[in-house]
Each structure stands twice: as C-alpha cells, then as structure tokens.
Amino acid sequence: MQTDKQPQEETTSFGKIEESIQVNQSLYDHLHESLVDEAVTTVEDDANVQHYKDYKKNPVVEYLIRLKQLYQLNDLFRYAIWSFGLMLISTAILTIVEYDLFYGDVISDIGDGFQFGDGYPNWVDTFFHTFWWSVVTFTTVGYGDVSPVTHLGKLLTIIIMLLNFGIVTLLGGAVASVLVAERLKGDDKLDENKFHGHIIIAGWHPAIQSTLRL
C-alpha cells in the first residue's frame, strides 16, 4: 500500500507544480522579459562606459574637460575669460563702427602701394588698420612715438596687448582676492579696543533711556 501511494503522491505534486506554472505563466514570462531587458541594458551601459572612456582618451577632449573644470572651480579664470570675451566683442563693435571712417584714412595715410588698380583701398588693409586702432584704443595702450607699420608687426603687437590685458586682469583679481580674504579673516577676530567705554544693557526699561542721557 505504501509503495503504491508514494508514486501517486509524486504524480499529484508534479501536477500541482504544472498547474501553478500554467496559472502564473504570464508572471513567469514578465520576469523572463525583465531579466532579458536588464541583461541587454547592462551590456549597453558597459558599451557606453567604454565608449566614454575611449572618448576621454582623446587629447583634445581631455584638454577641453580640464578647461571646463578649471572654469567651474576657479573664479579668477572664469572672470578672466568673461573679461577677455567682452574685450573681443567691444573690439569687434569698434571695428565695424569705425570701418567707414578708416576707409578714407587708408587712402591718405597708407598710400598707393596698398590700392587696387582702380584707385580704391584694399579691403584687407582697411579692415586691419581699423582693427589695429580698435585694439590700441580699447586696451588704453595708446599709439606712442613708436608703433609698428607692417601687418605682421601690428598682428604681433595686438597679441601682446591682449595678453597683457589678460595678465593685468588676473593679477588685479588675485591681489584683490588676497586683500578681501585678509579683511574677512580680520573680522573674525575679537577687537578688544572696540569694547572700552561701553555700557552693556541686559533687558530694557523706560527708565534706562533717561539713565543713559546722564
């Protein structure tokens, strides 16, 4: 009796398992799809991470990332970038506005050697002369007694003036930040000289005002 009962119980248990699987088939299918999607997502994430690492190995990209970090973390560098950008924009505006004025100036000052055959000044010379005047004026350098004549000399002088403007901005910001930091550090200390000849009042009463007048 016991040997016949045991196979019957095993058959019954397997039947219950199959019935349970059929009832929860949709749940099993959903879990299977979730596992497949998770595995595919993991593979894609790994591929994206590897692609990002390969992308960062590019020297140009690495240099740009460092500049971005420096721009976000260093206030002086950020202010210098904005100052330099505003200076370039202002110089471009001056160049555009004053171009017509220097169009005639090129004819009288530069000479016929830079003109076309029809007697009109070369556009390149006129523009470069205007740009040179804008940079010299905006950087407050001034023309002085000695100034470059050739285009190459003016170009090198423009680069030096712009670099000088940026260096002065950085040095001025650095000195100002040091002075402000020292001032703030000094405010944290207790100055005992400020507390001589003072009266400390704890609480308030109408009679105190008349007492203070005495």
Features:
77% helix, disordered N terminus, mainly alpha, potassium, 8 helices
What is this structure's SSE topology?
Blueprint: H1 2-23, H2 25-56, H3 59-73, H4 75-97, H5 99-109, H6 123-138, H7 151-187, H8 206-213
Helix pairs in contact: 3-4, 4-6, 4-7, 5-6, 6-7
Short description:
By secondary structure, this protein is an all-alpha fold. It contains eight helices and no strands. It comes from marine metagenome.
Task: Walk me through this protein's architecture.
Residues 123-179 form the Potassium channel domain. This is Potassium channel domain-containing protein. InterPro entries: K_chnl_dom, K_chnl_Slo-like. This protein is mainly α. The chain folds into two domains: 17-56; 75-187, no CATH class. It contains eight helices and no strands. Helix 4 (75-97) crosses helix 6 (123-138) and helix 5 (99-109) crosses helix 6. The termini are far apart.
Number of domain units: 2
Number of strands: 0
- Shape descriptor reads flat
Order of helices and strands: HHHHHHHH
Strand content: under 5%
Which residues sit in consecutive blocks of at least 5 with pLDDT less than 50? 1-6, 112-118
- How many helical elements? 8
Supply the helix-strand structural class. mainly alpha
